[in-house]
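Amino Acid Chain and Its Fold in Token Form
===========================================
Structure side: the spatial fold of the chain, written down as a series of whole-number tokens.
Position: the record begins directly beneath this header, with no further notes in between.
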Amino acid sequence: MELIFNDGNFNDEVLKSDIPVLVDFYADWCGPCKMMAPVVEKIAEKYAGKVKVGKLNVDASPASAAKYKVMSIPTFLVFKNGEVTGTLVGAVSQAALEAKLL
């Protein structure tokens, strides 16, 4: 199951996580974001307990999006130990996302 990240919980849920975190920066009006939703959900199920997977609505949480210079959506950032270790922008394959996680 995907988590919901926002400006309020980002520090605790993402930056302080002891396992890798995949953050899907999205917006409700974004077509490619909707297209990626099932792929992100599959990754959340496949890596449950090993990787934390969640979404961050850029309209509702602009501070986090600005901090990581998210200019287009969907943008996927992988965090390990509070640092960005992988970035993918746009509609990408499940294999491409998984490659950034591992």
User: Anything to note?
Assistant: The chain has one domain: 3-101.
